[in-house]
Amino acid sequence: MEFSIVFQSILNITILILIGVLLSKTFSFNDETRKMFINLIVNIAMPCMILFSIFKVDLNAGIFKSMLIVFCLSIFINLLGIALGWILSITFQGDSTKKREIALMSGLGNTGFIGIPLCATLIGPEAALYAAIFDAGVDFTIWTVGVIMLQKNRKFALQTLKSMLNMPTAAIVVGLVVAYFNFKPPAFFVHLTEQLAGLATPLAMFYIGMLIMTLQRGKVREKGHHLWIPLMVKLILLPFSVALFIHFFELNPKIIQTLLIQSMMPTLTLASILFAKYSADEEMGALTTIISTIISLSTIPLMIFLINLIGVY
C-alpha cells in the first residue's frame, strides 16, 4: 500500500473533521442534531455505501467464503482487544470499578463511521465490502458479549437481538441476497446509491468534529487515569497483535489490509450511547471516543508505516 495514499486520506479526514469543528460554531450541537447526523449516517449513507460496494464487486463462491472468514476474524479481533483491556485493567487498576468499560473500549472500534470509508478509499470497493462485514462482526460482539458484560445480571436476553437489526446489517443481507441470485439492479438505483454513499465520509467526519467541541478539560482530568489503557490497546497493542497473528493465515492481501486497518480504528462512536443504555459510565465512553479519534489521526498512518516495515503489506 502506498504510504502517500494513506497520508493523503488521513489529511482529507483531518480537514473534514476541522470543517465539522467550524460547523459546530454555527449552530447548537444538541441531542436533536446529534440524532439527525447519526440517522443520516447509519440509516442512509452507510447502507448505500455497503450496497454500492456489493454492486461494484463481482461476487462468487470465493468472495462469499472470504466474507465468512472476515466475519469470524472480526469477532476474534474484537474479543482479543477486550481481553487485553481487561488484563491491563486488572494489572494496573485492580481496584477500578471501570473494568467493563475499559475492556469494551479497548476492543470495539469505530469500524463503521471511519473504517468502511477509509478502506473504500485506500483499497477499493471489495475492501469496503470486507470492512462492512468486519463492522457486522463488531455489531455482533457489541450486542452479545458487550451486553452481557454491561448487564448487572450478566444474562443475554433475546430482546438484545433487536438492536442488531439495523440498516447497515439489513443492507448487507439484502445486498448479498441480490448478488447471490445474480440480480442486476437498475442503473439509476446504482447511481443513486453511489451518490448517497459519497455522503458517508463527510457526514461522519463532520459529526466527529462537532463531537470534539463537546470535550471539557475538567472531565478529561477527572477520568484521564482510566483512558490510557483503552487508548494504548485500541490504537497500538491491538494493531500490532493482529499484524503478528495474521501471518498464520493464508489470506487475500485485500483481506489482510482490511483487517489491519479496521483493527487500528479508534473507539466506537456509540460507546457513550451503549454505556448510557446499561447504566455504565457514559461520559467516559464519550471522552475515550473523542480523544482516541483525535490521536488516531496520527497513529493510523504511523501503524501502517511500521507494519509496512515488517512486511505484512
Automatic annotation (TrEMBL):
It holds the Pfam family Mem_trans. Its main location: membrane. The chain crosses the membrane at residues 6-24, 36-55, 67-90, 102-123, 129-151, 163-183, 195-215, 227-249, 255-275, 287-310. One of its GO terms (cellular component) is plasma membrane. It is found in: Cell membrane. One of its GO terms (biological process) is transmembrane transport. This is AEC family transporter. Belongs to the auxin efflux carrier (TC 2.A.69) family. It comes from the Bacteria. Signal peptide: none annotated. It is a multi-pass membrane protein. The lineage of its organism: Bacteria, Bacillati, Bacillota, Bacilli, Bacillales. Keywords: Cell membrane, Membrane, Transmembrane, Transmembrane helix, Transport.
